[in-house]
Fold:
Amino acid sequence: MNYDAKTIEAKWQSYWEETGRDRALETSQRPKYYCLDMFPYPSGSGLHVGHWRGYVLSDVWSRYKRLNGYEVLHPMGWDAFGLPAENDAIKKGIHPTVGTARNIANFKEQLKRMGAMFDWSREINTSSPEYYKWTQWIFLQLFDMGLAYRKEMPINWCPSCKTGLANEEVVDGACERCGTPVTKRNMNQWMLRITDYAERLLNDLDDLDWPEKVKKMQANWIGRSEGAELSFELHGLEKRLAVFTTRPDTLYGVTYMVLAPEHPLVSELTTPQQQQAVSEYVTQTLAKSQLARQRVDKTKTGVFTGGYAVHPLTGELLPIWIADYVLMDYGTGAIMAVPAHDQRDFEFARQFQLPVRRVIKMAGVQEVSEQNMQEADVRDGTLMNSGPYDGLTVEEAKRNVVLDLEAKGIAKRTVGYKLRDWVFARQRYWGEPIPVVHCERCGIVPVKEEDLPVLLPDVERYEPTGTGESPLAAIESFVQTTCPKCKGPAKRETDTMPQWAGSCWYFLRFADPHNAERLFDREKVDYWLPVDMYIGGVEHAVLHLLYARFFTKVLYDRKVIGFHEPFVRLFNQGMMTLHGAKMSKSKGNVVSPEELVEKYGTDTLRMYELFVGPPEVDAEWNPRAIEGVHRFLARTYRLIVDAAAQMQKQESRSLGKLRHRFVQQVTERIEGFRFNTVVSAFMEYVAALSEQSETLDQKTLDTLVICLAPLAPHLAEECWRIIGNQGSVFDASWPEVDERYLVDDTVVIVVQINGKIRDRIEVARETEQEQVRERVFASPSVQTAIADKTIVKEVYVPGKIFNLVVR
RNA sequence: GCGGGUGUGGCGGAAUUGGCAGACGCACCAGACUUAGGAUCUGGCGGGUAACCGUGGGGGUUCGAGUCCCUUCACCCGCACCA
Structure:
């Protein structure tokens, strides 16, 4: 009988659908397990074999957990708000709702053919009003908690997408989506106070079973650094200037001060003589793209303001400069410059002939003179030229300087973060409307909860205006409304939320996806969550994954849920490449699963996706290698069909040993996420079974089929029946390993001379060292090798190796 | 510049605590069956005639190193003037 994958797969897919096999039930007696994929954006291009990789992994894992006695929640949905649908609307005039629905239908069809055990009864779509009503509800909580606020500030702006961007969406100074260099634009924006959560977002990383790489990326992104804020008197002004520094110990080394060009004190500090140079520099800086400002060629530029600050300990006057190497949105937007011990300050000082003053030296060493320094000295030594602090270590001085200045009321210890608040508004159409109104009398007023959702209206033109307003601003019927508070005339907010909004909490909604009364039933969410295994690409390391953690903590603080981390374990699958490049429609190097499923069946493709290489590593698509996997499945099918025709009653000792070793290997390798080697184990086992002269028994066949079920579920179901079982193989249990079968009666000892293999001898497992030694010396090849040599040493590793060291 | 990772046959990749390098698959070669083979099955397959040599290069520790240490090269990823 030939392996007819197509028929088999169609048969079992409808069986699963009819029996509701893949539903996750709260009423189950089994312990829960939540295995989640990062849900896709339903693009018009459909899925390629690269997308399959993660979905296959999570499905194999889900099915394996099922066989291990868990009730598995394995849902799927759509991250359906986003720019491509909107761009299609602009270009082709297809309404985003229509285009999105079509793409979803296509994606769903493709995913169904994959044969994954998705619980489709829980399907969600972030762009549906039933869903985004609750995204808006969460926004209202953020607003109420003071975590959502409006602020006028220069933000990242993509001139091509014509929208503001979050810091996280700027990659190498360019828009993450379209690659256009990002500029700064002053805008009145909705922001989320994610920085309030910086400390917790950082600390709680410790408890997560995530790849170290991702944890490190998040930690770096949050970028915590301890330091102090010092306040400097300004010469001739009543105001003071605050700077942030991590090196208060170098206070005596300060030779000048620098403000960011955007700093509010710049205009007050600038003297009439410097007026023109300063304002030119400021204008020039603001016009520079982000890309130009952070160019690799970091030649320092800047202008003297004419103003001076007063050194708090020496009274010395310190010239105040402005320079674009100081960033307005980090620390206080101003620094004290210590050129001797900070590389950036050093470069700036050399550029503009500012003095360099060394205040740290290595103990007992004559350091090069300040004029001859080639670079800043950032080593931890002891203090010099620092008055009362001379001789202290860097650590001691850091502490003492801050304590002393604190006593004078001009310093306080602070912590700086690289993390910025989250720019949460987009000037685009296809997103969740931000549910607030602007009332002339009451100011910003949140929409009442019972009036949610604020529906996205139909528009005629989807083009972003580019003026900083979304297309919604052009719709009078949408904009004009009444104030929920005073009932007077008011205007709706016309910005929408960023694409990340919906994905910040979708994993919660899967626990109770159709709740029309509430966000979700808390009991259900606390039952299924947190997600036990989250599988997706590493590209979301600091975007989605950080935002989702933030939302989870906010909802925890709001007492909406009872846990504060959403994803216990994270796995990042590698990309699939073709000709060395990531598969993408635009590069034209995608391999589509359709023809492969048609030709070999989905079980073959699933298994090949696993076999192609370690799951966390990028893998090059090999169109030939899939044949080998298909041959293997066909061979397995034939073996089982033949064996079923004449089954042996009792399992033989040798089959038992093979079986237990196999189960042990497969289990260990699945648990270790080494799926490529799981497939190898199958190939070896099936080959070994084929070589058996005796007929196979029920136990052997059951075990083989159960173990195969997570990988090739359709074939496994078919074979489950062929070998005489009832129902679904997924109601069976994963086989146990009996250790007693794993030990052999005899062992092969490798005989080495000076570490080189000379012979192998087989001895009974319990043989004494002395007997082994006799056998070793009896070996003819050993005899030859040691003939005229002296034995210096004998090393015996029981059951493994006997090494003779000779001279 | 800082941080992290990876280097093993023609190719993808295997190798508990340091203990038989190259499992498994692809490609290739030979054979069987066949009118035929781009189907299937069997066998071979790191290099070298051999002694031996082989896990990016060099050094070290050890009876023994792909694995541990030092050093160096190449490639990849993340961050990038964060005071």
Q: What stands out?
A: Residues 644 and 722 of chain A are 7 Å apart (CA to CA). The mean pLDDT of chain A is 91.
